[in-house]
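The data are passed on as follows:
___
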Amino acid sequence: MPRTNFQELLDAGVHFGHLKRKWNPNMAPYIFMEKNGIHIIDLQKTVVKIDEAAAALKQIAKSGRKILFVATKKQAKEIVADAVGGVNMPYVVERWPGGMLTNFPTIRKAVKKMIAIDKMANDGSWDNLSKREKLQITRQRAKLEKVLGSIADLTRLPAALFVVDVLKEKIAVREAQKLGIPVFAMVDTNSNPEGLDFVIPANDDASQSVRLIVRLMCDAIGEGLNERKVERENEGDEDKPKKARSKKSAAKAEVKAEVKAEAKAEGDVEVEKNNEE
């Protein structure tokens, strides 16, 4: 069953593209028609692409890997932060720190610095600092939190990148492509879909459109995480009977050993009697 339908996408304004003069010819396969100088996206193809992307993201989440969401445009920031935070995935909604993927160890150092400041506040060493030092460190912590707070749990490179606007996030897309990280993206009629692994032709400017697409992707990720949890629980249940069986088999082995020992003892006694006679 499709995750969404034509009417739901229509109500969210997913079909509205950009002006004809701003279009990218590579988006031609996803354009249904032109109306009043504006390109209209083919929602039938959008439905198919949403299902493909959702299925792939579900499998990635099920495998226990992370998907990094990137949406720094004003109308998408809060939407992405709320939706993605609900499935515990990392996201960037402020400024894309250049080299975040290609120079990941340096980014991790900055995150560790932020964690070190938090520890300082808890272990008592904070009280030994002067007011000026406290103020400087507090400002530094706030700056790090704003840019890197949402990726504090990202201890290694993400398995995939989800981008809301490929034109605005072109640096992030380029870094992911350089490292061979799959890119999922909402692509409007003014963008180039070439080089992207999963293209979702959709209006990336309207907040309702962004909210719908991101929600569908997060729902798929949530399903993958739940299936992973169930599989782990089932594996744990399977291990318990094995342990029980091993205890039973050990008990049986002990009984058999005792029976053999008794039989051997009785046999030795009979041999001795025969020798005496």
